[in-house]
Amino acid sequence: MTPINIRFTRFSAFYSPLIMAIAGGFLEDEGLAPTHGTAAPGTSAIAGLLDGSVQVAQSAVSQGFAPLERGETPAAAHFAQINEMDGFMLVGHDPDPEFTWAKLAGKRVIVDHGGQPMAMFKYACHRSGLDFARIDAVDAGGSNAMIEAFRAGEGDYVHLQGPAPQQIERDGAGHIVTALGPAIGACAFSSLAATPEWLAGEQAPAFMRAYAKARVHLIDAPAAEIARAEQSFFPDVHPEALTRAIAFYQGLGNWSRHVEITRPAFEASLDIFLHAGRITRRHDYDALVVAPPKG
């Protein structure tokens, strides 16, 4: 077995295509012995690629926008998509089957202030006809702090990835009112990144075979089966909440069958980041994205 180290930028059920490659034994079936971890707050998973301690990183093509804005060549290449749609949800204190985005005007919304989550949130408001400036966007810190603040009564809504919203619902502490994905549409949300040197090596084709098989299984298998395989990765989440999160993403269509980062999805992300003022110009697809390794 050949060791392979995988690093997540953040960890949630939203990234199940990569989690299942590990949890479902797909990497081991290809002769790879995976270890994994999550980047410390304030650090990038990409840094591990550059020092050689990590072979594959969960990232996003938008990670490469900053060096391109500075006129630099990004050090990492994005070779496969994880999610082709935003996976955040809005949770309110009360059920609201008639929710509209207009209801957020004048409300305190605990919003994830990370670069991409915030850009996507602003674009969801824009696409839904709501001026972001009309929201009181609360910065409560990282995901755990956001959850704690909402449970303590801070804010009218909170902006989270699964399975946190499903766990909050199960605990009777809130209710999912909408998902951002449909409001935004398909885009290059999260991706797998590696160095060009690793992508040209012997591990990359084996990894890609395992990852592609894991995606198909994730899409086709019952949510409860996927949740059982992943449960040890989420020790603080109730199995019912994890199952509901998996089923939610399956139904929403976050996980498409193709692994390529498509040009239309990339162009949509440029639209989103231009709208948010995070970039000043449209960047070249080929400067960041490469085809998945074959083998």
Please tell me about this protein's structure:
The chain is of the alpha/beta class. It folds into 2 domains: 185 residues, D-Maltodextrin-Binding Protein, domain 2; 97 residues, Periplasmic binding protein-like II (D-Maltodextrin-Binding Protein, domain 2). Helix content is 39%, strand content 17%. The protein has 13 helices and 10 strands. It has a 5-stranded mixed beta sheet, sandwiched between helices. The longest helix is centred in the last third of the chain and has 18 residues. The mean pLDDT is 96.
List the helices and strands and how they pair.
Layout lengths: L1 E7 L7 H8 L2 H4 L2 E7 L6 H7 L4 E4 L5 H5 L7 E7 L4 E5 L15 E3 L4 H13 L8 E3 L4 H9 L5 E5 L2 H7 L4 E5 L1 H4 L5 E5 L1 H4 L3 H18 L2 H8 L8 H14 L10 H13 L20
Parallel strand pairs: 1-2, 1-3, 6-7, 6-8
Antiparallel strand pairs: 3-10, 4-10, 5-8, 5-9
Give a brief description.
With 295 residues, this protein is α/β, with parallel strands linked by helices. The protein has helices spanning 16-23, 26-29, 45-51, 65-69, 115-127, 143-151, 164-170, 181-184, 196-199, 203-220, 223-230, 239-252, 263-275; strands spanning 2-8, 32-38, 56-59, 77-83, 88-92, 108-110, 136-138, 157-161, 175-179, 190-194.
Features:
single chain; 295 residues; alpha/beta; D-Maltodextrin-Binding Protein, domain 2; 2 domains; 5-stranded mixed beta sheet; globular
Report the mean per-residue pLDDT as an integer: 96
CATH superfamily of the largest domain: Periplasmic binding protein-like II
CATH architecture level-2 label of the largest domain? 3-Layer(aba) Sandwich
Number of helices: 13
Number of domains: 2
CATH level 3 topology of the largest domain: D-Maltodextrin-Binding Protein, domain 2
Order of strands, main sheet, comes to 2-1-3-10-4
Structural class: alpha/beta
C-alpha termini separation: 18 Å
Profile the largest sheet: 5 strands, mixed
* Broad shape: globular
How big a fraction of the residues is strand? 15-25%
